Amino acid sequence: MTTKIQTSTMIETFAFIALGVSILGYIGKEIPWGEELALVPKISGYLSFFGFAFLLTDIVLWLKLSNEKLEKLDVVEMELSRLELVLADRAKTNADLEELFKFRSGEVSVHEMGEAWTYLLWRMRKSYRATNYIKNAEIYEMGYAKIALEIQAAKIKAQHVDIKKVFIVDNIQELKKMKTVFQNQHDLGIQVKYILHREIQSKDILKGKACELDTIDFGLIDDRTTLLWLLDDDRRIGGGRVLLGRKEFAKYEEFFDALFNEAQKYHDTVMRISPLTADDARTILAWPPYPSEFSALDYALREYGWLNQFPETTGNHRFGAWVDGELVGFSILTQTAPGEAEFYIALNPDKLGQGFGKELTQKILVKGFQDLGFERIHLKVRTWHSRGIHLYEQVGFRKVGEMEMEIMGKKDRFIEMEIRVRTNRYT
Predict the structure, then answer these.
(1) E strand or H helix that includes residue 115
(2) SS3 of 239, please?
(3) How many Cβ atoms are within 10 Å of 58's Cβ, its own excluded?
């Protein structure tokens, strides 16, 4: 800055000299000097020219310096505007932290949980992922739960917030009691799933992650805030905790992602299983074809398929699955040796991706082990059918080998899987 001021001062000095020279030039022209001083007007003229040049240069430099100063002022103004935005955002962040500081050091009393929950829901901008293990979802009978649901509904509509939930239940009877809760949340646009608590304990990946957590009942707000619901032995709310930061958040996020992947989608009615009839068989034959990715499986639904291959006899047990009075799938257990049966399953092509396959498989395994007394149930699944393989692993089947088979004139590779009485949870 000092150098620029000195440079400007030098230019101003030259300007004054140039002005003086210009004046002398004017005098040289107007005053009669005589012959002996005839050179004076010429010299004065030259000086006047150079003086004008200096003056013009000074004007140009002055304009340049002025423009530079104006540009610097613009930059300063921009920086000030940015600083104002930063300070405003910092003030907002500090205000948020000040609010959250009410719930510092984790401990939130049972009486503050409603306030903490609704406040954090109001702050969310992108996503909310939550589990619920509170007994019979009693939380949704509390006053602040209605406010919380209204906030979630508003966030879904106005900000397109992504909300996913997994309800953890101890048994099917508890699941039935929560039907209204599930339906209400489903109608709001919330992605709702459920899982039996014993499934968490029976799956090493879930059990291991759960052991690292303080509670399996929690909420994940956006990508940094975790709200823990601390439950007593009777699964009732005993208080809570608010965790800030990615480190703690990541543990719960990892568990939730694994849990959501294992959980089943909620259906507003419970699936009913009963033996297939001749009318049911005709209904299956009229089902539409499978999409192209599963076209190799379509033969199972046709006249030359499974219903013809495994007719209703003493060794073949054929079951249909109904939801809301509609046949959504069927399954067959065909005896292959004393105490052993092979498992087959097919769904209505219009019902794929709705969780019916897993539910039907589990119900048939219960029938196979408990009602029919089988000790081993096995199956074959194509090596490329990753969705089917994952489903079978979820319900307890394990891989025991591979083989090649020819079906409808085409050879394909199959994985052999089994589940036994001593290793399953269905007895």
Answers:
(1) helix 113-123
(2) strand
(3) 20
Q: Note down the domain range covering 325.
A: 272-423
Are 64 and 151 within one domain? no
* pLDDT tens digits, one per residue of 114-168: 889 999 999 899 999 999 999 866 677 677 888 999 999 999 989 999 999 999 9
In a domain, 74, yes or no: yes
- The answer to whether 179 touches 188, Cβ cutoff 8 Å, is no
Mean pLDDT to the nearest integer, 381-399:
93
Cα→Cα distances 224→109, 118, 128, 149, 219, Å:
21, 17, 11, 21, 11
Expressed in angstroms, the distance from the first to the final Cα of the chain is 87
Rounded to two decimals, the pTM is 0.52
pLDDT digits 0-9 by tens, 87-98: 565 555 555 555
Sheet bearing 237-244, strands edge to edge: 237-244, 225-231, 218-221, 127-132, 162-169, 191-196, 264-265
Q: Return the DSSP state at 3.
A: H
Residue 11, classified by CB atoms within 10 Å of its CB into exposed (0-12), middle (13-18) or buried (19+), is middle
The DSSP secondary-structure symbol of 108 reads B
Residues 200 and 75 placed together within one structural domain of the fold: no
- The answer, yes or no, to whether residue 27 has pLDDT greater than 90, is no
In the numeric block, which tokens belong to residue 104? Answer: 């510092």
